[in-house]
Amino acid sequence: MTVLFQARGLRKAFGNGEHRRYAVDGVDITVAEGEALALAGESGSGKSTIGLIMARLLDHDEGEILFDGQEIGKCSARRAAQQPWRAQIQMVFQDAGGAFDPRLSISDSVALPLRRLSHSRGNALTHAVEDALDRAGLAGHLFRRKPHELSGGQLARAGIARAIALRPRLLILDEPTAALDVSVQAGILHLLNELRRDLNMAMVFVSHDLNVLRVLCSRVMVMEHGNIVEEGPVGRVFASPAHPFTTRLLAALPKWPRSEGLPHQLPGSALIIHSQ
Amino acid sequence: MPVLAPLLTVRRLSLAFALPQGGRASVLDGLSLDIAPQEALALVGESGSGKSVFALALLRLLDRHAEITDGEIRIEGEDLLHASDKRMQDLRGKTLAIIFQNPASSLNPIRRIGRQIADVLLAHGERSADAARRRAVQMLARVGIQDAARRANAYPFELSGGMKQRVMIALALAASPRLLIADEATTGLDVTTQAMVMDLIHEQARANNMATLLITHDLALAAERCDRIAVIHAGQLVESAPAARLLTAARHPYTRALLTATPHAGSTLANLRAIPGQAPDTAAADLPACRYYARCDRRTELCKSLPPMQTASSNGAHVVACHHPL
Q: Per the database record, which ranges form the ABC transporter domain (chain B) (predicted)?
């Protein structure tokens, strides 16, 4: 395993005086090259704050951050935009619609970071934009559309296209499918998995949806009140959680009925439900 | 179990929206379903399927661009579509009540929560303002608000999302309705909060002999919490069955596809599949008879021209509307 990203002792507080609270309170994270890591937790657990800090879009108070062996936590998030490693760490947000400039076409939006960070111009730029949109599975006739002319699923694909256009080595995704219907979500999950494999990109999925994390990730970190309370392979943590909070989280998930033993079962209709 | 006369009966309900640019969108198409007293029924569908419009139609809370073009709705035998506005005001709260997805925007932001519950009680026959206030505190305690006497003086912004939804439930239950409609009532809440809110709805339904209609996009939640599930696609009811049966022996191709797209404890990425295409534009002039037609892998020409009949299993519990069911 080659370590791509490492953070140690991360802390971040919000608020002033007596209202000061640590949203992230001493967190260590290691991400291996090409790995799919899940960051699970409920609202207010600090998982999105960690995502923003990892993407260097938000300043942390304490701790060190290493990317590819290089310290990247010293410069401010503001100056991070000018750093050579900026292109290599990208982020995808939940609200893809809100993350696009409503005045620009989708392809112009995807071109912006390419122009700024990889300095491509002309045909090379057009090619890179179209390649990213293609890879994200967006149909060609949608490239010139404005964000409001796309559906939720199409916007999610456009958001992913913009993030992968720079060929990042680490992609942070904050609830990338939370606003989508399951019929659309399934396609986005497949897309992300293919992109991770084809581009050898590490991905950190920040989500409250344990069932989505389960199918997408190999390792999971569970957060509560700014702390990582449990960490391990997804299969093991979900099958036999060790921390009471993880147990509670899993117990709260709606149960999916097992197909065995139900009357009048039609042959061939239930095999789609259970994988084993 | 004794066979009870249905509490709610909906027959061939069709509803259209007049569009600002002209033309009409057929939002509900011939929808029929029953809810028995004390039954928990889930209406499951994706965004735009018409499930929330259906809930609003039951309460006659639709805006003026919506027109019910056919069908009937009866609750306890009473014809809702021909009830006077005055009568509807009585029925809302007392017979049917609803909780919405976003409690923050359903509560009055500048009125203390105890007062809001007292308002409902006063609207439904309570005469004494003092008694209404005392009962409001009891209602808050009943839905699990700690220190209810003090919390009754809180404004909505002082409460967490889960607590606000508890207040909404207290409001909905204030006049002891026979049917509680929960429209995506736990969407956006954390799973642990969702479980608590759903437990509360279940407890209250049982304690008050109340039926529930859970409107949701979440099949797993529907299966865990309801006796029966009805699936809606583009305004058409495609299948309904006892909950566990629907999940394990779905007969409509859309239900099956929805199940295959839903991640759950037994899922792997390999067996998770998106549904190709999208629901048709219900304003289109040439809508196929079965609106799943364009997305369906079992379609024939018949599906385009002839609306599928609802066929029931021998005991009548499993109903499917498809020419080529699984």
A: 10-259
User: What domains appear along chain A, each with residue ranges and CATH number?
Assistant: 3-98+169-252 (3.40.50.300)
Q: What is the pLDDT of residue A118?
A: 85
Average pLDDT of chain B, as a whole number:
92
**DSSP string covering A213-235, please?**
HHHH-SEEEEEETTEEEEEEEHH
* Optimal mutation site among B184, B189, B267, B315, interface A, most CBs of chain A within 10 A: B267
Contacts of B264 in chain A (CB under 8 A): 211, 256, 273
> Chain B residues with CB inside 8 Å of A272's CB?
256, 259-260, 271
| pLDDT exceeds 50 at position A265 | no
- CB-nearest to B46 from A181, A189, A264 is A181
**A187/B274 CB distance under 8 A:** yes
Give B272-316 pLDDT, tens digit per residue: 999 988 889 999 988 999 999 999 999 999 999 999 988 988 788
Contact A264 B249 (CB under 8 A): yes
